[in-house]
Amino acid sequence: MKNILVTGGAGFIGSNFVHYMLAHHEDYRIVVYDKLTYAGNLDNLIAVQNDPRYAFVQGDICNREDVESAVRTYDIDTIINFAAETHVDRSIMDPDAFIQTSVYGTYILLEVARSLGLERYHQISTDEVYGHIPMGQSSKETDKVDPRSPYAASKASADLLVNAYFITYDLPVTISRGSNNIGPYQYPEKAVPLFTTNAIDNLPLPVYGDGRQMREYQHVMDHCEAIDLVLHRGTIGEAYNIGTGIEVENLSMIEILLDTLDRPRSLIRHVADRPGHDRRYSLDIAKITALGWEPGHSPEEAIIETVKWYRDNEWWWRKIKSGEFRKYYEAQYGERLRAAAPQ
Ligand code: NAD
Ligand code: DAU
Questions:
Q1: Domain assignment present for 215
Q2: Predicted confidence (pLDDT) per residue in 115-147, tens digit
Q3: Which terminus of the chain has a smaller tally of CB atoms within 10 A, N or C?
Q4: Which residues participate in catalysis according to the annotation?
Q5: Is residue 88 in contact with ligand 2, taking CB distance under 6 Å?
């Protein structure tokens, strides 16, 4: 492994992964291949843009010719696929791009990896493929997938394709299934950066339903470290859960966030819930910890560190929130917030 194509590398986790890999592997060349959708942002990669080991190609993973050309040009031996439409609420509003990118796009990447005989294909997946997990249980990698949103279904479909290419064509694949990532460069449609940036501006925080849903918030750098471990020590053909093993209620996450910013609880607004909202995810992380990894941050440390990053990096998020985002915000929250009385 030395020339890696990071698809979706201009997004949140992909760009953090590029930073991580360049810092930890002197001899690797990293090529980011990204369509630059609303979520792709070259500001995330400013710190590496002059590194001779890094290159950027704008392209769609659904375009086979363009993917092949990038693979040949840079003598790629490994594809790590972060590219996806990733926001559950947008998948409920309009699932089309989710199916295109995660299902057809993953198929194209697998076909290129197979036809050019690449050394490795790694798929970045999610704990959402397992669906809602009742209290007292946690998901193992061998559990059946049971996705419940269009986003989760598009990701589970991709996992099934990846596994089929391993079984049928012997393609050397691995899959990692991460829980909720938080940290620098996350588009502020996701709960933690949305609530943080709203709170900084003393705007209400739109909390879905009772806010007692549970997520495993993990620091993005811990996730990147575990992906690197799977790349080097994982078994071909296998999936690995990556999380903290600790779920946090959204309201607890919000309390930590507000306390870090010294903002009042009165900013919380309970609004109409997300349709089909999964109440709880919970990962069994025994398999990845057996490879010698453990999360470097507790959920509370990850939340506090993340909130402080947005507090200190307004240059990054203010321009996003002042653009196209406003239309999205009105469509997603306008009615909900008007209908919610201040608590
Ligand atoms: P993101 O939305 O921040 O970034 C996605 C990136 O993919 C963007 O740069 C976008 O431009 C690019 N992209 C989208 N469609 C593309 C296409 N057709 N061709 C090429 N590039 C395209 O997403 P993220 O939060 O960084 O998530 C990255 C991956 O990790 C996704 O596969 C997601 O399902 C998975 N994941 C995310 C989380 C999380 O908490 N954010 C947790 C587990 C797994
Ligand atoms: O679990 C991994 C997944 O985490 C990833 O696969 C997805 O790509 C990523 O978007 C994330 O999905 P979630 O739906 O869990 O994340 P989100 O930040 O949208 O929401 C976190 C929780 O907060 C969830 O219970 C919904 C709730 N929420 C979210 C938003 C945006 C609110 O209460 N209000 C909001 O406005």
A1: yes
A2: 999 999 999 999 999 999 999 999 999 999 999
A3: C
A4: 127-128, 151
A5: yes
**CATH code of the domain containing 109:** 3.40.50.720
Query: Is there a domain that residue 343 lies in?
Result: no
Structure confidence by residue, pLDDT tens digits, 251-265: 999 999 999 999 999
Q: Band of the pLDDT at 98, cuts 50, 70, 90?
A: very high
For 214, the enclosing helix (H) or strand (E) is: strand 214-215
- Residue 57 near residue 32 (C-beta atoms within 8 A): yes
Domains of the chain: total: 1
Decide: residue 164, CB within 10 A, 0-12 exposed, 13-18 middle, 19+ buried.
Answer: middle
Task: Find out whether 192 and 306 touch, Cβ atoms under 8 Å.
Answer: yes
Cβ(155) – ligand 1 distance below 6 Å: yes
How far does residue 11's CA lie from ligand 1's centre (Å)? 6
123 three-state secondary structure:
strand
The dihedrals phi and psi of 80, each to the nearest 5 degrees, come to -120, 115
Does 1 have pLDDT greater than 80? no
Check if 86 has its Cβ closer than 6 Å to any atom of ligand 1.
Answer: yes
Residue 275 included in any domain: yes
Pairing of strands 173-178, 120-126: parallel
User: Over 70: is that where the pLDDT of 8 sits?
Assistant: yes
Mean pLDDT of the chain: 98
In ligand 1, which atom is closest to the CA atom of 101? Answer: 18
Q: Does some domain include residue 315? A: yes
Q: How far apart are CA 81 and CA 83, in angstroms?
A: 6
pLDDT of residue 343: 58
pTM above 0.90, yes or no: yes
